[in-house]
């Protein structure tokens, strides 16, 4: 379990992170969302030890992180980059060896991973000669070649083509399934929503909300109901205890004063004809995000 | 796709994975520097050109050197007694004056002049030239007074100049070439952002040390290759080297160069870390480049000025050139190189500490040039 305790960082006068605390559980895919300049990259850099925090600690399994621990982290920085003139395989092997793998094992890992990422034919090409999509795949290889036990990925989906997005999603899910804590940031809230077990929302250097996706939904979700019938729902406005928020022919979104009023409305709809669906309105992450950040 | 990120815990063998120490990490980093440099066409071509230049100067030296053979003269019968026995001339016998004149006109046997008997002359001979007075032949046949110098120069000034030039250019070229290489390598990592991945794995100190060591190995390799090539060339073309006189100063030069180079390399790396684009390297490293160039020009212009040389031999930036020069000239006491070396060592250590500080605090600051104050503060 990766934990941040009151991590604070100042850039001169500006307070970039203000007592940031959250947890990335073992085997939990944790999404890290926030606007531009909210402090996501700074937080991740501090976790990786690339930046030093002014206050606070980062622990793994209760122990304060050391350089040796961090060598077992997989990190994809927001600013992508590899050595342009090095060959794909050579570069991947080099990074694995810096992480402590023996030459033979590094070579084996790298070949296997590049093959899986669809770069098997490109192992002897230099990075600069690859297409942009393949450069991104090489970047993924660089983050994973040393078989990390904790993954921290800054915007892993930005600039990826749909196939690569699919690959990265698979990688993240597999890593979490094997018990590794996985933290990734993204602006693509739909991906985060689909993928994440837990969410951390940061705004202006402070944690605005954190917890499991379902508990956040329960806390910030609406009390509105969505009804779809084959007939016209004009009568719903006259139904006691019901306030219609949105309406279009056989479709309506409404708020109910009480459970009884809601039940009565549904019974009335069933009595009038064919009910296609009735459900609590789906709260999107975007809605929660907007609510929490404001 | 399945990716077993947990493999190291479940089936990774202990010998496949370890936590590499500082030395092992530095070895990997310096190894990469060397491999990539050896693959660079620019590096190979410039090394090749440098080698060719050294070889050419050795071969040309031997060609010009061989011209200083004894002047040949055609000796007409009757003057043989005068010329034979003369150690400064090589006699080519000619039957009579007509034959000798023909030899001179045709350039047969490379004769420069004719020595013919002339009973009316005080010396009993006459010297005939073709277009101009053959001075070397005349002086060989003249009687010169004995010359004694009251304060003879220990070293031939011409030789001193060449040695100064040699130390100067080797230091200047190597320091500049490999200093610039380090600067480029630092900025390349910043510009391509790969530095963030590196720093999440290894310390800035290991990264800097690896770069300095990798490039130092290359610099020494190049100097060694040049030295071997020059000595081989001199031996093969049959030229004699003043190794006895040059030996101690060359050893000192190597020692001073090694430490001086580490100092300059740290400064090059630190200043380069301030910028994020390759185009800005030139501007930002200018002060360090100056520190390399000034000793070069000083030693060329002032190699006959003991005061300037004495100062140079103690200032850490010029000591690698100045002190070996004074050792060669024999103007340094035995303890002086050691004092200067201690001074250089202290300065180099300081440069490495400050350099590492600037390097570490500037690596992740991309965009505009990092101000000195901010870089030093860390």
Summarize the structure.
The complex is a heterodimer of chains A (294) and B (378). Chain A has 294 residues and is of the alpha/beta class.
Explain how this protein is built:
- The complex is a heterodimer of chains A (294) and B (378).
- With 294 residues, chain A is of the alpha/beta class.
- Chain A has 2 domains: 2-218, Rossmann fold, CATH 3.40.50; 222-283, Alpha-Beta Plaits (2-Layer Sandwich), CATH 3.30.70.
- In chain A, 36% of the residues lie in helices and 29% in strands.
- Chain A has 10 helices and 14 strands.
- Chain A has a 6-stranded mixed β-sheet with strand order 6-7-8-3-9-10, with helices on both faces. A 4-stranded antiparallel β-sheet of chain A has the order 2-1-4-5, with helices on one face.
- In chain A, β12 and β13 (251-256) form a beta hairpin.
- The mean pLDDT of chain A is 88.
- Chain B is built from 15 helices and 4 strands.
- The longest helix of chain B has 35 residues, at 157-191.
- Chain B has helices at residues 7-10, 22-39, 41-66, 80-83, 97-106, 135-141, 157-191, 194-199, 204-236, 243-272, 281-301, 306-312, 319-329, 336-362, 372-377; strands spanning 72-76, 90-94, 111-117, 125-128.
- Chain B folds into 2 domains: 73-141, no CATH class; 155-377, no CATH class.
- Mean pLDDT of chain B is 82; it is low at 1-13.
- In chain B, α13 runs antiparallel to α14.
- The radius of gyration of chain B is 31 Å and the shape is elongated.
- In chain B, α4 links the parallel β1 and β2 (90-94).
- Helix content of chain B is 65%, strand content 6%.
- In chain B, strands 2-1-3-4 form a 4-stranded mixed β-sheet.
- With 378 residues, chain B is mainly alpha-helical.
């Amino acid at each position: 379990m990766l934990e941040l305790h009151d991590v604070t960082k100042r850039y001169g006068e500006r307070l970039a992170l203000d007592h940031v605390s959250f947890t990335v559980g073992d085997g939990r895919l944790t999404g890290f969302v926030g606007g531009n300049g909210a402090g996501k990259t700074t937080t991740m850099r501090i976790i990786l030890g690339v930046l030093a925090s002014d206050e606070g600690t980062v622990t793994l399994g209760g122990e304060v992180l050391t350089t040796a621990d961090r060598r077992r982290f997989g990190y994809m920085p927001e600013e992508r980059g590899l050595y342009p003139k090095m060959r794909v395989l050579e570069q991947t092997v080099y990074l694995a060896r810096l992480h402590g793998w023996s030459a033979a094992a590094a070579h084996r890992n790298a070949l296997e991973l590049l093959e899986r990422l669809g770069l098997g034919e490109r192992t002897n090409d230099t990075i600069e000669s690859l297409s942009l999509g393949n450069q991104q795949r090489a970047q993924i290889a660089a983050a994973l070649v040393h078989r990390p036990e904790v993954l921290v990925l800054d915007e892993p989906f930005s600039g990826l083509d749909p196939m690569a997005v699919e690959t990265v999603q698979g990688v993240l899910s597999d890593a979490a399934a094997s018990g590794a804590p996985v933290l990734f940031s993204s602006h693509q809230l739909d991906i985060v929503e689909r993928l994440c077990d837990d969410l951390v929302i940061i705004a202006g250097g402070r944690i605005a909300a954190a917890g499991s996706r379902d508990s956040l939904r329960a806390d910030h979700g609406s009390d509105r109901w969505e009804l779809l019938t084959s007939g016209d729902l004009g009568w719903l406005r006259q139904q006691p205890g019901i306030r219609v928020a949105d309406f279009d022919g056989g479709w309506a979104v409404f708020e109910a004063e009480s459970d009884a009023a809601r039940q009565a409305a549904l019974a009335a709809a069933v009595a009038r004809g064919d009910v296609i669906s009735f459900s609590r309105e789906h709260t999107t992450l975007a809605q929660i995000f907007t609510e929490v950040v404001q | 796709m399945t990716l077993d990120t947990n493999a190291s815990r479940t089936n990774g063998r202990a010998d496949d994975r370890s936590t590499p120490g500082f030395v092992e990490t530095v070895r990997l980093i310096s190894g990469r520097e060397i491999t990539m440099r050896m693959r660079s066409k620019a590096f190979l071509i410039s090394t090749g050109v440098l080698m060719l230049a050294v070889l050419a100067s050795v071969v040309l030296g031997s060609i010009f050197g061989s011209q200083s053979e004894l002047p040949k003269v055609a000796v007409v019968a009757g003057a043989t007694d005068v010329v034979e026995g003369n150690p400064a001339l090589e006699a080519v016998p000619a039957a009579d004056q007509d034959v000798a004149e023909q030899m001179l006109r045709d350039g047969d046997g490379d004769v420069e002049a004719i020595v013919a008997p002339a009973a009316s002359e005080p010396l009993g001979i006459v010297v005939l030239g073709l277009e101009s007075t053959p001075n070397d032949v005349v002086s060989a046949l003249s009687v010169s007074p004995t010359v004694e110098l009251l304060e003879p120069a220990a070293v031939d000034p011409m030789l001193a100049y060449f040695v100064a030039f040699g130390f100067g250019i080797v230091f200047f070229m190597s320091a500049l070439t490999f200093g610039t290489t380090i600067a480029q390598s630092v900025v390349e990592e910043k510009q391509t952002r790969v530095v963030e991945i590196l720093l999440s794995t290894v310390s800035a100190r290991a990264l800097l040390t690896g770069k300095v060591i990798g490039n130092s190995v290359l610099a020494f390799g190049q100097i060694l290759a040049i030295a071997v090539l020059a000595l081989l060339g001199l031996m093969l073309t049959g030229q004699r080297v003043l190794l006895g006189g040059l030996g101690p100063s060359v050893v000192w030069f190597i020692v001073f160069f090694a430490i001086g180079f580490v100092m300059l390399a740290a400064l090059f790396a630190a200043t380069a870390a301030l910028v994020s684009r390759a185009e800005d390297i030139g501007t930002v490293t200018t002060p360090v480049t100056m520190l390399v160039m000034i000793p070069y020009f000083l030693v060329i212009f002032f190699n006959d000025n003991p005061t300037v040389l004495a100062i140079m031999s103690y200032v850490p930036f010029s000591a690698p050139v100045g002190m070996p020069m004074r050792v060669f000239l024999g103007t340094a006491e035995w303890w002086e190189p050691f004092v200067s070396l201690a001074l250089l060592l202290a300065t180099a250590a300081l440069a490495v500490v400050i350099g590492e500080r600037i390097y570490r605090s500037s690596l992740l600051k991309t965009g505009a040039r990092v101000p000195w104050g901010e870089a030093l503060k860390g």
